Request: fold
Amino acid sequence: MTNNRSFESRAMQYLSLLGSSRVLVIGDIMLDEYVWGSVRRISPEAPVPVVAVRDDTYVLGGAANVAVNIAGLKAKSHLVGLVGNDPAGKDILRLLRKKAIGVSGIVAESGRPTTRKTRVIAHNQQVVRVDREKKDPPGEKARDALFRNIASLVPEVDGVILSDYRKGMLTEEIVSEIISLAERHGAFVAVDPKHPDFAFYAGCTIITPNKSEAEAAMGGQELSGDAAISSAGKALIRKARAAAILITRGEEGMTLVERGRSTSFHVPALARQVFDVTGAGDTVIATLAVAMGAGVPMRDAVLLANVAAGVVVGEVGTAPITIDKLRHALRQRMRDQDIESQEQTETTTGDPSWPG
Reply:
């Protein structure tokens, strides 16, 4: 594995390059709504709690959260996807503009509700979740508008992220066209997959399933240990006709398998304490893509994404990465390594002031 301290030093230099990266996110856009309140009684109408609402908050989700992570790293972020002609769709556009994320690629489709997940929280516990969504593929008019937007934006970026939550936006036809267009214009394609058959994303550059998604893609085969993960990674690369696969493994870290390399790259998890894994996959693919777009070698891009993941899982809720959080985490790791190195030196040489 790359020497940790040398990576930290390189990573601090990489941070100044991230702002040059241009990444287009294409996929399923969502709005996460949180209804906060308290419960003081049970309804007389049914045995359910009555929530007295105190506040509502809105957070960008799905592909929009990936774009937020990219913007947080000071890279140029643009988004293509579907929303509805409804208040939730307008909320999404407003929130994206506030974060300086390009929205010209977003299509509002009549008759399609904006994908919205409403979570009712009382006393810090989720009482119920209400989903509003339509998983049908885009209609002909919306599909044609999406193709036009994709064709105009892909030539302007270093890379494309396909953020697939299987809400209907990424059809096989659209995915194939994106990958073909990106190849013609020299842009990489990174995929956060939900389709169990990775041939659906044939020709992508890198695919980033979590362990469960990799197991599903292997027909339900349980993947236990580095060797099994590496073997599955090679098989899934062939299925996706990809250059690489990055399998995220939670507390076991992540594993990068690259076409043409006999050895896999295992990276341990860095989080000291895990509070919430919500959105961690979005952070990983966003950081990876921004780094690749800035010219960072793939293995160092993976290490940087791992540091970013360690930051966001230590925060409650969907907490996107930012350049300042990443810089702070890298500095902290360098300080920790200095302390560890000093302790090892003292253990080896002994304290000269201590009588022998």
In short: Residues 323-349 form the longest helix (27 residues). The chain has a mean pLDDT of 90.
